[in-house]
Amino acid sequence: MNCLVPGFFITLPPDTPEGQQRRREQGRFLAIGRTGEPEEIGPLTVFLASAASDHMTGQAVVTDGGGLAAGPGTAVAGATGAFALTWEERMEGYTLVGKTALVTGVEHPAARAAAAALAEAGADVAVLAGRADAQAQAEAAAAAVAQHQRLSRAYAVEVASLSAVQTVVQELIAAWGHLDILVNGLDLPFARPFLETTDSDWERVMSHVLYGTLHCIRAVAPHMLARRHGRIITYLSVLAERGMAHCAAYSAVQAALLQLTRTLAVEWGRHGITVNALGYGWCEGSPFLPAEPAERDRLLRYIPDHRLGQPDDLAALTVYLASDLGGNLTGQVTYVEGGLLSHP
After folding, report:
1. CB–CB of 217/182 below 8 Å?
2. In the predicted model, is pLDDT for residue 115 greater than 70?
């Protein structure tokens, strides 16, 4: 069970003077500078009703133009309605044909699945591994993109270096002309008791995940701001919200990514850029999983939908957020984690 929460929606047709005036009046309160449109709700409802959202439960998805990201009192729920659009016309907003994307952290299975899903939706997709020695993984991810008859490029650099990331982005824009979508999938699982975690441990986790993500955003942002269009989607863990023993460094970085998402959504909303995050829980292949079968069975019983996450659980929602239909959803962190955060 999930909940879809609309913010400001004006039901008056946009081609009437009154409809235009109402949109101007209400849009000034929102991060993206405009109200939502009814056709933006339907496809997200379809996603929540489909098998693609099987591992997502207990979530409230807020399509409010970034109002809640700016704090209480900036978004007020409104009525919804329907314009004279056919369902086929509404669903056309899902296509990513003509769009280009950069997906980082393709050492992580979820990022690889995202790259393939974006390509399947029609985008040309470049993939970036966050370590210079991971070129083979980047090439494999690019090959999966190419199977969908889309253009692809593979890169492997140390994302802790801003100049290295900027070089990749500049080369990509020079080759393709524009960059529409950034998916930040960098991850570096790390667990150690707090007093045994050294400064070098903290630096390693922060350099790769936090600074790596910052560098990717800093590299693409000037281009997106100049074009007044962009989609930035960051993957993070439920440990951004919940504490877990021995995971202080990892959890702190995840929480930083969460607040970075909300802040940039407010800062860039009026420039045509949406910034969102998708969160995962216990996933198949995670190094955090218990080794003992009895412990793993206990964990599965704790997860409300009684299964581990799969790499493609975030893929469909990534496509939605990257599409034109995701333009009214910004500053949100949506978890696809089997209902873990619904537990007290």
Report:
1. yes
2. yes
Strands 333-336 and 124-129: unpaired
- 227's CB contacts (< 8 A; 6+ apart) are 178, 272
User: Among residues 94, 155, 250, 320, which one is catalytic?
Assistant: 250
Report the first-to-last Cα separation within the chain, whole angstroms: 17
d(CA 219, CA 261): 16
The Cα–Cα gap between 236 and 239 comes to 8
- The whole-model pTM stands at 0.79
Q: Higher confidence at residue 241 or residue 231? A: 231
Q: Is the distance from CB of 293 to CB of 326 less than 8 angstroms?
A: no
250 catalytic, yes or no? Answer: yes
State the Cα–Cα distance between residues 37 and 82, nearest whole angstrom: 9
Cβ–Cβ < 8 Å for 38, 275: no
What is the rounded distance in angstroms from the CA atom of residue 160 to the CA atom of residue 292?
35
Is domain 95-335 classified as CATH 2.120.10.30? no
What percentage of the chain has pLDDT greater than the value 90?
A: 55
